[in-house]
Amino acid sequence: EAQVTQNPRYLITVTGKKLTVTCSQNMNHEYMSWYRQDPGLGLRQIYYSMNVEVTDKGDVPEGYKVSRKEKRNFPLILESPSPNQTSLYFCASSRLFRAGYNEQFFGPGTRLTVL
Amino acid sequence: AQTVTQSQPEMSVQEAETVTLSCTYDTSESDYYLFWYKQPPSRQMILVIRQEAYKQQNATENRFSVNFQKAAKSFSLKISDSQLGDAAMYFCAYRSALNDMRFGAGTRLTVKP
Fold this sequence. Notes:
The complex is a heterodimer.
Chain A: E1 4-7, E2 10-13, E3 19-25, E4 31-38, E5 42-51, E6 54-57, E7 65-66, E8 76-78, E9 87-94, E10 105-106, E11 110-114
Chain B: E1 3-5, E2 10-14, E3 19-21, E4 24-26, E5 32-39, E6 46-52, E7 60-61, E8 64-69, E9 74-79, E10 88-96, E11 101-103, E12 107-112
């Protein structure tokens, strides 16, 4: 089954404790992206990647890191989480813009609470 | 930078009626994609419909259709014969040729039986 998986689905942590949210896709997509969703703001792009070892900042990259060492994986790292990073996070993947049908497939979301 | 605006935070419709959700966007690009995504209470993001900017014909998917006005930078979603299962948050989204994505703030649709 074609899918994007994220782990963990729920996480409660404390300020300053480093954490990683994993994302993996099995569709051989070149493009992967992270978003955060906050009430009244919709989804905002944090980082995206168009290929292995290629990453670009989105609208809200501050406080986040990503890496793309393998095509299928795109982890999101919070080195020192703060309460303003409490949010719902989505990972997504797709083909590149010029590759025709480029619908983004979304993971199930990770609900993060930073105390 | 491109922006996407959904001016209706909430909408409601009677079951079996038709409702239109509005979306406008701002861009200087000529080549891009537009999408409508549905997010039910499960939080899963589900693609409803997509439109390629260079195609003049409006996209349709069963009961869902769009009114794409490129010059006006408008991309509204029409849902016909509304069903209870259509109740959800709907997001309009823009994908640029540079592959970055922008989403609107969302419209919460309620369907009344």
